[in-house]
Write a structure and sequence with these properties.
With about 200 residues, the chain is mainly beta. It has a single domain, classed as UDP N-Acetylglucosamine Acyltransferase, domain 1 (3 Solenoid). It has two helices and 22 strands. The protein has a 15-stranded mixed β-sheet that branches. A hairpin with a 6-residue loop joins strand 21 and strand 22 (about 195). About 40% of the residues are buried.
Length: about 200
């Protein structure tokens, strides 16, 4: 028997009860550990998503948090819609190594397309547009950035792949075009944008 206070605490903080998480799983999602997985009751979630342990999906009162289908949320992923909306498409991978997306200041609006990868401690804040197939690889804080949509990492032609940030550090106010990447080590500069084919020749 699960103590009543477990669900009482969840309700008090706007989170799904264990029965609601069971309903989420019944709709075709996978929740490996419902006790360590915290999901906002107000979040709108599709089907086929996989939630590993220690994932937090939170939405403040009046917030807007939408998750599509077939996304993979590895452990230590946190998504928060506090002062602005967070919209996530389908077929994305969040984490290994952790991921954070927080719309937690005035003007914040995070939109993530389909089939992207955001790995290795990536964190997204502010007004960010991460287009279809885009990638953030590494412990990078992306603030008010736009990664153009294109092919995913599986696209054989690097000139057609979506925008990519790779490395470590802070990327602020940057735009990465289709087929391009900015690599940073401690910081990122628009002037360092270069074609992805330099690093990954066409297959």
């Amino acid at each position: 028997m699960i103590p009543a206070f477990v669900d009482d605490l969840r309700r008090a903080h706007g989170l799904m009860t264990l029965d609601q998480i069971a309903d989420l799983a019944a709709r075709g999602n996978v929740v490996f550990d419902p006790f360590s997985t915290l999901i906002a009751a107000a979040a709108r979630i599709g089907t086929g998503n996989v939630f590993h342990p220690c994932v937090t999906i939170d939405c403040a009162p009046g917030g807007d948090l939408v998750i599509g289908d077939g996304n993979l949320f590895h452990a230590n992923t946190t998504v928060v819609a506090e002062t602005g909306p967070v919209t996530i498409g389908s077929g994305n991978q969040f984490g290994e190594g952790g991921f954070v997306a927080k719309a937690n200041r005035v003007g914040a609006d995070i939109r993530i397309g389909d089939h992207g990868r955001y790995l290795g401690g990536a964190a997204v804040f502010g007004a960010c547009r991460l287009g279809d197939g885009s990638q953030i690889l590494g412990a990078i804080t992306a603030d008010d950035c736009m990664l153009a949509g294109g092919g995913s990492h599986r696209e054989p032609d690097p000139d057609r792949r979506a925008g990519l940030l790779k490395g470590t550090g802070v990327a602020r106010g940057l735009t990465v075009r289709v087929g391009h990447v900015i690599v940073g080590h401690g910081g990122f500069r628009q002037a360092d944008e270069e074609p992805q084919r330099i690093h990954h020749p066409a297959r």
